[in-house]
Amino acid sequence: xxxxxxxxxxxxxxxxxxxxLAHPVRLAILDRLHRHGPATATQLAPDVGATPSVTSWHLxxxxxxxxxxxxxxxxxxxxxxxxxAARGFRFEAPExxxxxxxxxxxxREMFVRYGDLPxxxxxxxxPGLDPLWQGAAGLANTRVVVxxxxxxxxxDEIERVLAPYVTRDPAERPAGSRGVQLMRYAxxxxxxxxxxxxx
Length: 199
Prior knowledge:
By secondary structure, the chain is mainly α. It has 9 helices and 5 strands; from the N terminus they run βααβααβββααααα. It is globular, with a radius of gyration of 19 Å.
């Protein structure tokens, strides 16, 4: 199902771009730029675990794939500010083996980067939230039995609901708004016949 990319994400289709992003420092750079906006390599370095010169090299590499860009046209190159080229990114595994391998590498790196986020949140953030935000937070573990087409429709409907909140102008956010990390995993199980029984 074609969602029309309602969230304004960059769609990564090039296996080389997927492999370029499948690196802990590059994912950290993109995450920091998405979360906090434009920054120099020196400003990014402490958050991404690299020196300013190494961070600068990774930024140029990301720029080569159109994932980041100069935040200010004609800016002083010594104080070059970078920004994410879009609100987020998405990718799908291409049909060829090289593409599937690159998509798996990026998926694995993303799971490594974000896998412990819920447990860190539960220890570091949740105890300090006021009851209103504690009540609005939560998680679910829902298993459904669907076709691939139905799963695509579910994903599309989730994006339809999220799009107005993701794309609205910051000036239109209500008082008391704050960032919320919505993590979505759609993890198809093994085929029942391949698994050797009913799941």
